[in-house]
Amino acid sequence: MTALKPLIRCREIGDSDLDPVADLLTRGFPRRSRDYWARGLRRQSTRTVPEGYPRYGYLLENDGAAVGVLLLIYTGRGTALEPRIWCNLSSWYVEPAFRNYATMLTRIAQRRPEVTYINISAARQTWPIIEAQGFRAYCRGLFFSMPLLSTAGLGSRIDQISADAPTIDGIPPDEADLLIRHARYGCLSIVVRSKTGPVPLVLQKVRIRQGRFALPAMQLIYCRDISDYVSCAGAVGRLLLLRRACVSVMIDANGPIGGLIGIYTERRGRKYIKGPQPPRLGDLSDTELPLYGP
Questions:
Q1: Who's near 128: CB < 8 A, 6+ residues apart?
Q2: Which of 151, 242, 257, 289 lies at 20 to 30 Å from 123 by C-alpha?
Q3: How deeply is 211 buried, as exposed, middle or buried, from its count of CB atoms within 10 A (0-12, 13-18, 19+)?
Q4: What's the Cα-to-Cα distance from 139 to each of 76, 145, 213, 280, 281, rounded to whole Å?
Q5: How far apart are CA 284 and CA 294, in angstroms?
Q6: For the segment 269-290, what is each residue's pLDDT rounded down to a tens digit?
Q7: Domain 8-140 CATH assignment equals 3.40.630.30
Q8: Which residues are bridge partners to 75 per DSSP?
Q9: Which range has the worst mean pLDDT, 60-74, 147-161, 201-215, 250-264?
């Protein structure tokens, strides 16, 4: 008898697929717990997604059984008159026996020419593959700033934004929604009230592993411009020391940042982009980092 070929297909992930998706990702990323993936998928299930785009991403099936997954996080960053769609190509895993079919996921995930795709967590060994797919590095490293050593912004008032804040004085509604939404994700959303006007920032606590040790730090998730963070770094540094016991803030960068004391490295932090919109350093909002955690 002739052996039957497996029935392989690729389709959108639905709400009923979340349990097998969490199981797949737990097997693919054993350092992450199943609760980690389940929490992130719950957040994806309730967030706003541009109409006509996948909520979760795509699933690879073999005779109805889930054998591969690629998470996608779509976000609308434009206006009704000028829509801009961004997609964070997030966690990817295919069971070893079906790796030959893995390209089905990547092809279907990158087929929309109007979408700007980003990859913010590419492992070093995958860089040549990603570049061969037409991506270019827009961020080559990280700058570990030491804001406590800055005097910029000292004396400014800082408002911490709660997850249930109704509005935020002096902040446009769409940006206020961003700050509140990320506070719900567990990020630190703040507005620095300086003499030149309000400066909105979102930061997320991370741990930087150095051998056996894990050092606490913050990742800059959102700012209007890196210069905004520089202008109030001293005030932010004192707040972080008192409330989060952190002395360093990581910033996406392509070199040392003027006005800040710290260390630049290209050993980690490379991020890629492909699509019609230009990238912007200092904006990781609504990506896998705040939704799933570091």
A1: none
A2: 257
A3: exposed
A4: 21, 16, 26, 9, 7
A5: 12
A6: 999 999 999 989 999 999 999 9
A7: yes
A8: 86
A9: 201-215
Which residues touch 120 (CB under 8 Å, ≥6 apart)? 88, 271, 272, 284, 287, 288, 289
Count of C-beta atoms within a 10 Å radius of residue 132: 8
Distance CA 193, CA 43 (A): 30
Q: Are 193 and 154 in contact (CB under 8 A)?
A: no
Question: Which residues neighbour 189 within 8 Å (Cβ) at sequence distance 6 or greater?
Answer: 160, 161, 179, 180, 182, 183, 200, 201, 202
Quote the mean pLDDT of the chain.
92
Residue limits of CATH 3.40.630.30 in the chain: 8-140
Q: Where are the alpha helices (DSSP H) in the chain?
A: 18-28, 34-46, 102-109, 127-132, 173-184, 226-231, 233-244, 288-292
Sign of CA dihedral 25, 97, 90, 250: positive
Q: What is the pLDDT of residues 216-256, one digit of tens each?
A: 899 999 999 999 999 999 999 999 999 888 999 999 999 99
Quote the tokens at residue 76.
Answer: 């609308």
Nearest Cα neighbor of 204 from 125, 120, 115, 92 is 120
> For the whole model, what pTM was predicted?
0.92
- Residue 202 contacts residue 189 (beta carbons within 8 Å): yes
